[in-house]
Amino acid sequence: MGLVVLDTSWRITACDALARHLLGRQPAPLLGRSILDLHPPQVRQRVEWLLESAAQGPASLLVSLPDRTILVRVVALEEGGGLAMALFDLGDADATDHPRAAVPASPTPGADPAPATAALAKVPITRHDGVFLLDPTKAVNFEAAGHYTTVVTAAGPLFCGLSLRKLEERLEDSRFIRVHRSYIVSLNHATTLVREDGRTALVMDAPDKPRVPVGRNHMERVRQRLGL
Hints:
A hairpin with a 2-residue loop joins β9 (148-153) and β10 (156-160). The protein contains four helices and 15 strands. It has two domains: 2-92, Beta-Lactamase (2-Layer Sandwich), CATH 3.30.450.20; 123-226, CATH 2.40.50.40. The N and C termini lie far apart (52 Å). By secondary structure, it is mostly beta strands.
């Protein structure tokens, strides 16, 4: 576990060796920097929400960095204000998003091939009070938000700390399909395929009937899956 201490302005005042290792892949020293600066602009609002939530009690968030996924736990400090942030390394992030050199291992004669990555039984949704486990059948579509993902449901949008690429690898192929570089949809919730002004979209069964664009590179696969 790595530990980071923030002042009342959310600037880093102290961190241990593991935290420096996890967050040190930055172009400038960590001390004195705002913790928000370590995240892409499109997700800083969610990190800000995490820090504000800590005033009401311990708050958690899954953070996808370029080469790993980290569980962040934040609590408010009683003496002098500020926050304490615990970082738990959950391992390597999606290697297909951030390829690295690797030496292939020699297979053991007679050994079974390595098992494929298991399909997600639940989608982890980050909330102020912990991680809610969403039934994948409740997800209407997924939209990329930087290193994170917005999950659209009939009840409204939710925040998932996994990248869209990671979700694509783990969701069941029979139910979900990538239709755009920024979108995955549940075919169970798709109601209509429409074409307007030369653009194709899927109308989804959710409040306000959102339209998810279908990219040209994905059109043929979408047509095949829909029998068109």
